[in-house]
Amino acid sequence: MDDAGLFSGGPNPILLVVVPLGFAFALPLIGFVSKKILKYIPVGVFMFNLVVALRLLPLVLKQPILVEIGGFSPPFCINLVAGPVGILFSALIALAGLLVAVYTLVYIKEGPEEKYHILYLLLLTAATGVVLTGDIFNLFVFFEILCISSYTLVAYVGNRAGIESSVKYLIQGAVGSSLLLIGIGLLYGLFGTLNMADLARQIVSVGSSSAFIPMAFMITGLGIEAAIFPLNSWLPDAHSSAPSSVSAILSGIAIEVGLYAVVRILFTLFGLSSFFLFFVFLGVLTLLIGEMCAFSQNNIKRMLAYSSIGQIGLILFAFAIATAYAVTGGLFQMISHTLGKGLLFLAAGYMIVRSGSMEISSLKGMGKRMPLTALAFTIGAFSLVGLPPFIGFPSKFLIIRSALAEEALIFNILIGLILLGTVIEGAYFFRVVQVIYFQKENEHQKRHEAPVAALIPMFLFMIAIVAIGIYPKLVTGILDSAASELLDRVDYIRSVIQ
Amino acid sequence: MSLELLLIIAFGGAIVTYLLGKISCRIREGFAVLISLSLVVMIACLYGENGTESIYFHFLGLPLIMRTNMLSWFFAMAVSALGALSVIFSLNYMKNRERTDFYYLMLLMVNASMLGIIFSGDLISFFIFWEMMSWSTFLLISYNRGPAVAAGLKYIIMSIIGSMAMLVGVLSLYATYETLNMATLAELIGSASSGYLLFLLIIFSIAFAIKNALMPLHTWLPAAYAEAPTPFNGVLSGMLTRMGMYGFLLIMYVIVGATRALNLGSGLFKFHYILAWLGAITIVIPTFIAILQDDAKKLLAWSAVGQGGYMIVGIAVGTNLGLSGGIFHTLNHAIYIVLLFMCVGAIQYRTGGERDLNSLGGFIKKMPFTFIGTLLGISGLVGIPLTNGFVSKWLIYKTLILEGYPFLAFAALIGTWGCILYCYKFIHHIFLGQLPGKYQNVQKAPFSMLLPMIILSFAILFFGILPGIPLKIIDTIGTSFGFKSMNVTIWGIASETGTLNTINIFAAVLIVSIIAWLMLKIGPKAVSVAQEDTYAAGAAIPKDKYHYTVDFYNPLYRMITPYLKDFIDAFYMKFAHWIQSLCNGTRRVYTGYVGNYVMYIVLFLALLIFIRLKWSL
Description:
The structure holds two protein chains of two kinds.
Chain A: H1 15-33, H2 40-62, E1 65-68, E2 79-82, H3 84-107, H4 113-132, H5 136-154, H6 160-191, H7 196-206, H8 212-226, H9 234-241, H10 244-270, H11 276-295, H12 300-321, H13 324-355, H14 366-369, H15 371-385, H16 392-404, H17 409-438, H18 452-470, H19 473-487, H20 489-496
Antiparallel strand pairs in A: 1-2
Helix pairs in contact in A: 1-2, 1-4, 2-3, 3-4, 3-10, 3-13, 3-18, 3-19, 4-5, 4-10, 5-6, 5-10, 6-8, 6-9, 7-20, 8-10, 9-10, 9-12, 10-12, 10-13, 11-12, 11-17, 12-13, 12-16, 12-17, 13-15, 13-16, 13-18, 13-19, 15-17, 15-18
Chain B: H1 3-23, H2 25-45, E1 52-59, E2 62-68, H3 70-93, H4 100-119, H5 123-141, H6 147-177, H7 182-188, H8 194-211, H9 220-227, H10 230-240, H11 243-261, H12 271-292, H13 296-317, H14 320-351, H15 368-382, H16 388-402, H17 406-431, H18 447-465, H19 468-480, E3 488-489, E4 492-495, E5 498-501, H20 502-522, H21 554-560, H22 567-587, H23 594-615
Antiparallel strand pairs in B: 1-2, 3-4, 4-5
Helix pairs in contact in B: 1-2, 1-4, 2-3, 3-4, 3-10, 3-14, 3-18, 4-5, 4-10, 5-6, 6-8, 6-9, 7-11, 8-11, 9-13, 10-14, 12-13, 12-17, 13-14, 13-16, 13-17, 14-15, 14-16, 14-18, 14-19, 15-17, 15-18, 16-17, 16-18
């Protein structure tokens, strides 16, 4: 499986999938030796993944790395395509995974911890697998792992709300998976191959319109996990009843991976550019619905969950414009959303623990009780609204800029709607910030800060948000080549099938 | 002196101040004063430097540029000086309050971002600093809790709406010209069509009119001014609101250019003419609303809205006199409104936060320096000769009359009449009349509060008697916009259209006051009696109720109240409620039944296929 000629010195990208997967299965065995060590394993694994991904990053910028599993060359085997997009996402997943794992050390104290860590590892393994794989059926498999571990983690708390929303999520997710599978089956029936590059090549030759029905099925199936309106009804329930550490991953990673799959299929597999305008509208609709619902929430986690829908809408809008600038902006917004929403969920998590309620009004006086956590929440909120000098500003800026460059009246109207969405977003985030800092608290409560292990990841998220916000060049180089990988179908096909 | 260093000191100073506060309050306060004073000195040293441009950073491939010219020097000087005075004033006022570290951090941050806005040589850094200013202001307005929370939210929502409009303008400029450098844009924009320029001006005007509280976009201001911490009111009313003025000057005269900006539209519907009319409306209505206020800070807030109208009228008329009047009025207004807010602050400090005019009174003997400050402040506000407000209002009146805008001039005059009424009410209710019994032991304001007040009082007289000093700078700004020079002398303006010479006025006032002093000296001595020793037709009036300031101007109230409901604000609130119920309605999409959700999924699939069949995409 290892072909030394393909990489020049870097580690094998397959490690990104194999190591967490292996540890996920080894975890019960390690549990026999020591229960205490279990929770440190995800930290170590994602540290390793982050290092591998960062070492691969400069290499893949020059040329995508191809991993052929089983020694056959594509299209006859399952292969991993570690291009800029894949490694960028792997690094992002590893970073978020690492920070949330550190947070989990103190956050998850009750329940079947061992299973939590197994599922957590599986969830992120699957996410990494989805972004790295070059095989459509393999994508489906990873997707199923991702979904199933999400269903379970959503119900982790074990209360009624958690189980109810988990079942709802399961039902919708199952419908989605079957639609996806039908789509893949149809494709296989039409073209007799499952390799994405090979499929793309054949679709180019017969014209994308002939493969429309499988595309519709696949988009609908993946769209459920990607939380595109109206397929996102599971999200507010699931994200709000999961433990906050899981919500951070579900909001920050899982739905973005889903959206990645949608975009990859739209761009690389089908290249159906005549349909992009529809997705532009859909993105704006998703954004508006998400922001408007978030505005009318009293529950902090539901508010954040709806805000994720809004952000996904913005990202979808950016991708559907499908120019280099817009896709860069979309990818940038993904990073900004992962960092911002991750930070928000982590901060909200401990504020909920301390106040004992998810009601926004119960967060009164948190600015005094937990100043650092409150600061983390504020920075996350400001970043998501898109205020400088935080990361949300350059990403939103890029998206609006690329949309304005379209110079069509319809885009100007859509920009107006998006900016309206931003105003609503600002309204509800600022309202929460005011509750945290400026509402009169009921009684004087003593300072009770989140534990250090929870503050460290928040702090690192904050540093990343401010650093990239002030100096976006840290990521724009990678984003540019990732965007061109997504947009350049022919190049993708050529790089996989020599 | 590089501008980068200046901004690093400004922003870094804010953060270091915050950190020092964790060690000791004393060190923090000393450092805050040091930083703000050193900014004043550094900016003063920049005088006369022109057009220095330096690219200090690349943001998303856009160069961020800093530059300095007379316009930015003028505004930066005002910002840093008033900022420093506000910091000094805060020292005592904010003592023993909660979260003072945060207060100083945000105060210095607001000042730093304003300096950033002013020195920006390109629109992207302008926008970045503008946003930073907005959110740090939001945090400071909300600082007082209670009603301040709603005020802060209103401010930030309107502010975001404005900055979103600005973002569209900025990015549309970028999409058209591929640069955001102001100087380059000013050259390139000459070829733009009138329609595009009009679009630009309108979209930028939304942002700047919201910040400058131009009617009908003023509604955030009264609540925000009333609820913000009083020392911050100085910064807020003096310069922050007037960043809108800076923005108007920038977009109208620097980027679009005077010749184009003053010729957009046709007939009565010229852009600048409509802007001037909005300014006139902003003068009249808020001035009369100010008369109705019983809250000292609200009164000043509405007054500030009204005075903003003068500035807009001045710059929108588009003559050299008007422009100078507008810019000079910005400075003058900043000086006296900061002074007046400081006086209110001193009163609040000594009375435990009282700002209801009806329960104050008779403080003239208790707080004489504050009284003198207030007297000079309102003299400036009304525009009494030998105070600075007179000169700028004179310039604006002069140009309105010369250019043949009688209705605008009339509006400006009405504004001044109203101004006299509320100014008298303001000083009378606080300092004259009877001293309520509970304030018998009120002390003089502490020195750290008096010092900025004395400096500002001095500035009012100085700029009133020697208006030539600032006018010379303003004239340079005007000529850099392409206007004719005004022939400024140190005592005023000597031109063929009208001469302003403050030395004559000064001499006249001096002679009259000597005569008055002599007459007082010759006449019989006044007898001091206790304050209750007043003739009341034999009736005994309880001491507490002996306060005749309640229902001041009552007949006038009854006359004007029905017309002066803030219906614009009511309309916005209604709109906000409508949006809120729309949001609540939208939430119903997520019904909670899985069956519906699965139906959505199937319908979506059907929709995809339908679109395909219908339009065969």
